[in-house]
């Protein structure tokens, strides 16, 4: 393997494991295609340690997120089992650098995703949908990155909390999204902010996977991307996301330990 690819992957993986931010790589260090190779190499390091892939996530599927981060292209990364956090559990923030949380829609697949699909075909591949909260934690200092940087960093993936799955597919379009900290709204929006309809995120996922020559087995998760901007995650907080017609998902953050 190209030694610099392995070098970038190790730096990003170490930063995640040690919860220590790193400086952005010098501009032009790698292109987008190489960034995805770095991403895959870093994930392979996790898998080699016993973790396993359980799905994928999309990023920058809403304007709110693009504006917040100054990045204007759809990206995707991997979800692994160690990222899945129990709903209603207390999450220790010490494992992260500068975590943020954002409201999302999560799909559970019922067939292998191995070709580009249209919306109708995509619907036929969805077992269920759930409201979800994603914890993102850029490994770059101050959450500053370029498109290539964030792709190499597995799109800031750090944690996923998924609510109850249902087959309320009709609820997906233009549903109110509310994220609250200790009962106070911190972000509000609509599922329509996700590419007009979250199903389009699924369609895009199928296209991106096919373009990379990859497939996703049945029973995988697909996170559609945040409907609103992300919010810095404070300690000792109750975090809740309500998506009208889909339900609620929540967790707590633990007391900070020195
Ligand atoms: C990159 C991840 C983007 C989303 O839902 O748009 C993302 C980041 O904002 O750090 O997860
Ligand atoms: Mg996200």
Automatic annotation (TrEMBL):
One of its GO terms (molecular function) is 2-oxopent-4-enoate hydratase activity. One of its GO terms (cellular component) is cytoplasm. InterPro entries: Fumarylacetoacetase-like_C (IPR011234), Fumarylacetoacetase_C_sf (IPR036663), Hydratase-Decarb/MhpD_sf (IPR050772). Keywords: Lyase. Residues 99-250 form the Fumarylacetoacetase-like C-terminal domain. The keyword Transcription regulation does not apply. The keyword Lyase applies. This is 4-oxalocrotonate decarboxylase. The lineage of its organism: Bacteria, Pseudomonadati, Pseudomonadota, Betaproteobacteria, Burkholderiales.
